[in-house]
Fold:
Amino acid sequence: MKRAFASRTLSIAAIAAMGLSLAACGGSDSGGTGASEEASSGPIDIWYSNNEDEVAWGKQMVSSWNEQHPDQKISAQQIPAGKSSEEVIAASITAGTAPCLIFNTAPVAVPQFQRMGGLVALDSFEGGADYIKKRSGELASQYQSQDGSFYQIPWKSNPVVLFYNKAIFKEAGLDPENPPLGTQEEFLETARTLVESGAVDNAVWPSPASDFFQSWFDFYPFYAAASGGEQLLEDGEATFNSDEGKAVAEMWKKIYQEGLSSKEVYTGDSFVDGKAAIAISGPWAIAAYGDQVNWGTAPIPVTEEGAESHTFADAKNIALYSACENKGTAWEVLKYATSEEQDRNLLEMTGQMPMRADLTTVYADYFDENPAYKQFAEQANNAVGVPQAPNSVEIWQNFRNAWVGSVIHPNDSIDEAFEKAATEINKLASQQ
Amino acid sequence: MSWMTLPRSKRVQPDGSDPAGSAAADSAGRHGGSSDGNAGGPAPRKPRWRPLGAQPVGVLFSAPYLLFVLAVLAYPLGYAVYISFHDFFFTAPGVSVPKPFVGFDNYIAVLTDPAVIRSFGNILIFLVINVPLTVALSLVLANALNRVTRLRTFFRVSYYVPYVTASVAVIGVWLFLFQQNGLINSLLGSLAPEPSWLVNSWLAMPTVALYVTWKQLGFFILLYLAALQNIPEELYESAAVDGANKWNQFWNITVPGVRPASVLVTLLATITGANLFTEPYLLTAGGGPDGASTSPVFLMYRTGILQGNPDIAAALGVILVIGVLLIALIQRRLVGGKEE
Structure:
């Protein structure tokens, strides 16, 4: 009872504060992307995610910077709690209280933040675009906005692969060291074998919820692999309404129809709890699964045997927010935090892949010592991000609705649902 | 629960004169300073003009709440109406973008969206199940609780606990109950619905309605318990003397006796029902299956907050407010009856 009251009081306070800050919006004339401010230096604020490993990385990065720059100190904190980080960030942009840098900016939200006037184009700093392109190589272009500027620096990716439970595979009579998961056909057959053998209730259990981002962990990696690395949109046009896209949908439809995956949401981790034999996750999961499951990994299945696999990048980036006063310092911190040394710390402390073109060569010693992470590094260069298009959240929601209504609960045919979604999405992507 | 006695005490004054004293202070407090000629009290002097009412100190006491309502309710509501008529999105301070007046465009966008129409249909299903069930169950249980002599507090607390527990926590329990392999389906055995409750287009909304009824029952039972205290025991005694059985007593004395409470319970149940959000968000995983349990507020959250289209979300919100007011008006006519 006490807790319910406390949270209500808090939310009332938050709403009141929001009202006040909204009221204050009209009069302020600070912010924007004034070029004159960009050189200014001094103390700055940053936010990082609340993931335990990332917090540890953030703390060491901040303290080593602060030691060297006593006049330009960083104050750091975790992103304030909310239903999602993106909501909190959007609210802070509106209120003018966003920090200088957020080390957990989701690329899907960047077009919206940019439209709100909340971000600073990093090209406006001298050598900004060159720095980004040099560090991330070809990957960088995926995170370029439609106007050609970078409003985010590609920071780290979590290339998604298949994790499988070796014990369950063995019980189902499958080779746990070399499982048949190379092609989509093999994946479907393996799923059938797993469930029919009685070794497990669900072969695979991605969330069937209708959140816009859930397609990143069922459709999108499989589509990237099947299409040779296409994004959901290319040049502002939907690509998924194709043979490859529909083949992925047909496969998942069979998985749901044959009861190889549940249509219900699981309230824990279905893979750790042994309720599913396969999980679709990034390298962050290695620490999470730990010794609880005897797992192996395999790349996302392709359409034809021998083809190169692609996957979803699940990237998190760093953006510089327009409410920042000392943008000069912020830009220097951004470069410091993505330096070769700090990227090594990030890799070692979190197991997530810095988006560097030279990832596998410059940290070769790390991957030799930690072979479990090697596959992710190899996948990182073939990882597909979310398209930087206007209305990107709404675009993904449209796609998700089509998926839920034709694949998970087949009330519509896949042809119709994809056609309708593609038309709607093309319209959304062309709006400015 | 002093509000319950208010109409009664008013009715006691047959000549319609002001009951004076505390009631006058009450009226000044409520209206925030509206001057009332009658409220002058017994003083024979010629009435002075009092802009702050007979009890100016009442304004002081009611001011904090008035300010709160203005800041947290009136201003945002007015702002929402403004947003709904413009091409609007939130921007950082100092960023000026044109926010042109677009007339009813946002309203047209809302009303031509099949997902919105469906969400209103869902809410209708919800209300048709939830409101009558809430009224009936809470009245019957309150009546039973009123007669219980042993373990009274225990029962009252048991009914009230779900109401004060965070929905997020209780939903976890309901998920275990209503999942494919949950307790309910194990008990039903071969009678279990296929697909299971929460992923069945026909059963998802009724299950949500059932959940909300159960969760809020404790609060409504309390309202009815308070109302029951106001029914004089003599009425039951004389009815018993006239040979009325328990059912006749309930139907002819209790039900009319708690009518003001029934008006309130229907109204509150309707309002909370129309504002349904947490349950479709968590219990049916975002309005699932395939939109069968989306609610207008859930769509407002998705459109306004996640997708950054507050203009369309505001239009949906305004339509919802008007809808709730209309339903409330109809209910007042139907249930409130002679109370006017």
Notes: The longest strand of chain A covers residues 276-281. Residues 1-38 of chain A have pLDDT under 50 and may be disordered.
